[in-house]
Amino acid sequence: MADDVSAEGKYLLISVPDFAVDTVGLKPGPLVLADKEDPNSRKIPTGDRKDETMSSFLRLGAFHQSPENDPAAKRALALAKVALEVTMVQGGPAPEEDEFGAEVNTDNTGVGSIPLRGEDGKILTDKDGKVLTEPDRGVFLDDQRIGDPRSSSTDLEGQSRPRSERMEHSAALLTRGGWWDHTDGNRISTTYGDKVEVIRGNYKMVVMSRQDNPEGAGGWDLSGGHVQDLGPASMPGASVRVEFRPGMFGQRGTWHLENTTNNFCQTSDYAGDFYEHWYGNHKESVIGSESPVEWHEELEKPYGNPAIVERTWASKIESYTGSSTVRIPSIHEETYADTTSSTTDVKLSISETTYCDGTITSKTGRVDRPVPAMHEETYAVASNSLTTLVTSNALTNVGVQMETTIAGTLGSLTLAAAQGDVELIAVKGSVSVAALVGEVEVVAKKRIVTVGNSFEWKFGTHEDTDSMKKKVKLKELDTTLDRLHTTLINKRMSMDEKLTALAIHLQGMQVAIGM
């Protein structure tokens, strides 16, 4: 079975054709579209091989040159080609428009014969209806991977051969020869002791799961030093894409791993101790989308916003953000919601401390968006508040304000170098109902200016004790007495002038009558 001169094409074939009739499964069914909504999708056989004859063979050396002439070899070749299609949604370089760390995009993933699609997303075919494909993209994920290139043949740190060399090896998968075995039945391998397999090349396992559509197959790909799960039709895998990012972290570079789990409901339970440690330059978490839809047609996955429920029971909770020696340069938080509700129920004590060497700014509402209503309640046995300020400015612009204080005892102490109070109010009402009100003011000077009408009603006795006012009133009384004395003197002088006038008038009358 070989050329007598060069021995080219030499092989050893052990074949057992038609050794039995398959008794399990379903009978072979008709060909159907892999995607019933796409008339251009491939046709997949249905059913199994029940009542069909089974064959097995082992071929060592050169592989089949005309497998179509042997039914068992033809079936073996069809299964072997599935290895070119199972990773069509994994591997490959990331799209150029995607930023590092962006949402996983599988548009440019896959190996093997990738169907060409038009602008409308439909698979393109030739005039005979044959599906058009992109140029062969290899067999293993490492064939398309952006790797760590070798600087020379002796560079042992660089794990990636040139892509052309990787493709050359994979292109010879079914033509290079070696070992090929196939069976239509089951294959069982048992080892009582240890088993070691050493593969200098790459390794790939494809599991069809008792059906013939590659989109429903899964498996593993171990190539380029990375292990990746394969699951195109269900869970795309523990890693969708692995690419080398040169120059990161000040080193030669590192591998960028992309993971995705689509179209699944997942439950995870952790029983025991659990630790997480994160280091690096960036950590970002995104939940939901600003443009949610129940199903994203282009991405072919759910894209809605989830309901998030978190419950925590713990013997102790500690949370630290930064430290006094290594501070966070900037912290920014935003919350947008229709309604929010927060309840804190503590049996013993609550302690809150805020330090700031700069400025603290707190805003509630804004000028063009005022809060319709604010309601605050505080119930406490005792309340102590201490504020030490160099400068304090407070502005309250209120249409209507109502303040009510009900207390057994109230005390207020203000110590200030200067204090200025300005009130611009259309109507102001103040009511105090108390058994005793005591007010003490110690000031150098006090000025009270009232612009407009002022009315003051006092019911009951009123005593105003003011030493300065008493001194002023005494001075005012002394001045009044002086003015009164001057008035009396003036009146006396007026009386004297009148008496003199009467005397002159009397003398005139005496002359007139001849007295």
Task: Describe the protein's architecture and organization.
With 515 residues, the protein is of the alpha+beta class. It has a domain at 1-97 and 104-186 and 199-282. The chain is built from 3 helices and 12 strands, in the order E-E-E-E-H-H-E-E-E-E-E-E-E-E-H. It has helices spanning 71-81, 163-171, 467-513, and strands at 11-21, 31-33, 43-45, 53-61, 178-183, 203-207, 218-223, 226-230, 241-246, 253-258, 293-296, 301-303. Strands 1-4-5 form a 3-stranded antiparallel sheet, covered by helices on one side. A 3-stranded antiparallel sheet has the order 6-7-8, with no helix packed on it. It has a two-stranded antiparallel sheet with strand order 2-3. A hairpin with a 4-residue loop joins strand 11 (293-296) and strand 12. The longest helix is centred in the C-terminal third of the chain and has 47 residues, at 467-513.
Give the amount of beta strand, in percent.
5-15%
Low-pLDDT stretches: none
Helix content: 10-25%
Strand tally = 12
Biased composition (Basic and acidic residues): 34-51, 134-148, 158-169
Region (Disordered): 30-51, 95-122, 134-170
